[in-house]
Each structure stands twice: as structure tokens, then as C-alpha cells.
Amino acid sequence: MHSFTLAGRTAGRIGYGTMQLAGPKAMGEPADPERAKAAVRTAVEAGIRLIDTSGYYGPEVANRLLAEALRPYPDDLLIATKVGARRSPDGGFVADATPEAVKAAVRDNLRQLGVERLPLVHARFMPDSTVPWTDTVGALAELRDEGLLEHVGISNVTLDLLDQARAVTTIASVENEYHVGHPGGRDVLDATTAAGIPYLAFRPLGNGALAKVTSPLAKHARQLGVSAATLALAWLLDLAPNVAVIPGTSNPDHLADLVAARELALPSDVRAALDEA
């Protein structure tokens, strides 16, 4: 159960997210670019073959560091990216979801990553978007047909948005926020499980809060002899066989705790306690 099929490939269910490779709030350069690149390399050395990234991290910084760290990429590496948003001057995320903007963003990702084709691109739904969601998803489907990407995914969606997207094209994956204590969203997870669609959980550590020794998981983690981060990820992986997690870090020392979730079997009482949380 360590792997599943994603975008036509066998992928491990623990991935790596690049958001933290950039500076604070995923804006600008990191304080230590070499350590950030070392974290990416350590992830790959630990067996991670799913990397989630986006041109709007930095902007462009995470993609550039990823390329500098790994090119030429391993043949079995699956890089997934996201489009549909841009950064505001204050470090926020705002909609940029017109078909023209989405297509330009895909081409930007291709250039930044130094590849000719992207295995998987997610259309991220932004609540402030005034563009019909089906137009945004349809733009990615057109680029897939042109050969610039292989598979279309969607991100940050409700059950209704999932249904709308599936009416436009085949959806290879759904990428939504999910972690212990996260309110709502189980309906989308259940729908993807029933349909056999991979579900990628982003912010699986709750922006790092769940990894702290003072987090609600810490007591259970100590009893099991693992870190709170390991337990948080293992809980997600135990939800359903189509779930993968995409935690991120710019510290190579943290990677061991992340990949350790592959081997942790949850006792039923811990499972129940975290479900209740």
C-alpha cells in the first residue's frame, strides 16, 4: 500500500511539496538556497518520486531551485504543478484563471522547470475567480490535446466543482487541503475514493502546526515512539488507498520524519482518537 497509480504512473503515496523552498509566505528567495536544494535532493534519495510545485511559489523561485537541484530529472520522477492563481504584492493568492492566463502559466512552468511536457497540471479553483470553472479546466484539456501536458488535475475544489470538471474532461487527480482537525472536505475525498481518482492532501501538517511537540497529536506520537509529523501523515494515508500526502520542508533533516509515515501502522485506539479530533 506504499504506492498507487497517478497520472498513468506508479507513484509513492508520500510526495514532496516545494512551497517552502521559497522565502517567507512563499515569496522571494530563501535565506539558504543551498539547504533548500539539499532538501529536494534528500527527498529523492529517500525514494520520493512525486513532487508538487507551482510557478507562483516565489514566484518562479521554487521551480528554479527544483530544476537546479534535480536536472536532469530521474526518469521515474513525477512532477505535478498548479495554475489558476497569481501572487499579490502582500504575498497573497488571487485568481488568474482565464484560459489565456492558464495556458501562459503552463508555458511558464515548462520554461522554469526546463521540460518539454508536464506529467500533471492542476487547475486551482480560487474563490475570487469570475471565470467559469469549466473554461479554466477546459484550457488545460486543450493543452493536453496539444501535447504540452499529459494529465489534467484540479485543486481546492468542492464536490460540485469536481462534478463540473469531470463533465469537461477526465480528471487524473484532486489536490485539496486535508489534515487532522481540518473541517469539512470528506465528501470530496469519499467521492474520489469511489471513483478511483487519486487524492493529494496538501498542507497535511496544517502549515506545520501538527508537527510541533505541543500539537494535539504529540501525546499519541510519543506513545508510538514517532514524531508528530510522522503520525499526522500516517493518519492521512490510512484514510483511503487513493490518498497521497505532499508535505514540504526546506530542511533536509526533516525528511526522515516524513518518509517514516510509510511504515507506521496505526493502532485502532489512536486511529479513533485522531478521527475524533
UniProtKB/TrEMBL annotation:
Organism expressing this protein natively: Amycolatopsis halotolerans
Stored PANTHER family: ALDEHYDE REDUCTASE, OXIDOREDUCTASE, ALDO/KETO REDUCTASE FAMILY PROTEIN
SUPFAM superfamilies: NAD(P)-linked oxidoreductase
InterPro entries named in the record: NAD(P)_OxRdtase_dom_sf (IPR036812), NADP_OxRdtase_dom (IPR023210)
Official protein name in the record: Aldo/keto reductase
Pfam family, one: Aldo_ket_red
Residues covered by the NADP-dependent oxidoreductase domain: 13-276
CDD domains: AKR_AKR13B1
